[in-house]
Amino acid sequence: MESCCCCCILSLSLLRGKAVEKCPLSGACYLPEFKGQVCRVSTVTEIGKEVMGLRISPLQFR
After folding, report:
1. Which whole-number Å values give the CA distances from 46 to 17, 33, 38, 42, 49, in the listed order?
2. Which class for 28: exposed (0-12), middle (13-18), buried (19 or more C-beta within 10 A)?
3. Does pLDDT of 2 surpass 70?
Protein backbone atom coordinates (compact mmCIF):
# COMPACT_ATOMS: atom_id res chain seq x y z
CA MET A 1 0.00 0.00 0.00
CA GLU A 2 1.25 3.47 -0.83
CA SER A 3 2.21 5.88 1.94
CA CYS A 4 0.48 8.71 0.11
CA CYS A 5 -0.81 9.73 -3.30
CA CYS A 6 -1.92 12.95 -4.95
CA CYS A 7 -5.50 13.88 -5.88
CA CYS A 8 -5.50 14.17 -9.68
CA ILE A 9 -8.00 17.05 -9.65
CA LEU A 10 -6.93 19.28 -6.77
CA SER A 11 -3.22 18.24 -6.62
CA LEU A 12 -3.52 17.68 -2.85
CA SER A 13 -1.49 15.07 -0.99
CA LEU A 14 -3.70 12.21 0.28
CA LEU A 15 -2.02 10.53 3.25
CA ARG A 16 -2.37 6.87 4.24
CA GLY A 17 -5.47 6.27 6.36
CA LYS A 18 -7.52 8.99 4.68
CA ALA A 19 -10.44 8.04 2.42
CA VAL A 20 -9.41 7.78 -1.24
CA GLU A 21 -11.31 6.83 -4.39
CA LYS A 22 -9.39 5.34 -7.31
CA CYS A 23 -9.88 4.93 -11.03
CA PRO A 24 -10.28 1.19 -11.76
CA LEU A 25 -8.24 1.47 -14.99
CA SER A 26 -5.41 3.91 -14.27
CA GLY A 27 -5.27 3.68 -10.47
CA ALA A 28 -5.31 7.48 -10.21
CA CYS A 29 -6.28 8.76 -6.74
CA TYR A 30 -9.07 11.22 -5.95
CA LEU A 31 -10.82 12.68 -2.92
CA PRO A 32 -14.12 10.89 -2.11
CA GLU A 33 -16.11 13.96 -3.25
CA PHE A 34 -15.16 13.13 -6.86
CA LYS A 35 -16.62 9.58 -6.78
CA GLY A 36 -18.88 8.98 -9.79
CA GLN A 37 -17.14 11.51 -12.04
CA VAL A 38 -15.08 10.57 -15.11
CA CYS A 39 -11.39 9.93 -14.41
CA ARG A 40 -9.20 12.83 -15.60
CA VAL A 41 -6.33 10.45 -16.44
CA SER A 42 -8.03 7.67 -18.43
CA THR A 43 -11.03 9.80 -19.52
CA VAL A 44 -13.12 6.61 -19.92
CA THR A 45 -13.79 5.23 -16.44
CA GLU A 46 -15.85 6.24 -13.43
CA ILE A 47 -13.96 7.21 -10.27
CA GLY A 48 -14.62 4.73 -7.44
CA LYS A 49 -16.39 2.16 -9.64
CA GLU A 50 -16.00 -1.48 -8.54
CA VAL A 51 -15.07 -3.70 -11.51
CA MET A 52 -14.47 -7.41 -12.08
CA GLY A 53 -11.40 -7.10 -14.27
CA LEU A 54 -10.54 -8.55 -17.66
CA ARG A 55 -12.29 -11.78 -18.67
CA ILE A 56 -10.64 -13.63 -21.55
CA SER A 57 -11.76 -17.25 -21.18
CA PRO A 58 -15.23 -18.86 -21.02
CA LEU A 59 -13.88 -21.04 -18.17
CA GLN A 60 -13.57 -17.93 -16.00
CA PHE A 61 -17.35 -17.41 -16.09
CA ARG A 62 -18.17 -20.76 -14.40
Report:
1. 22, 13, 5, 9, 6
2. buried
3. no
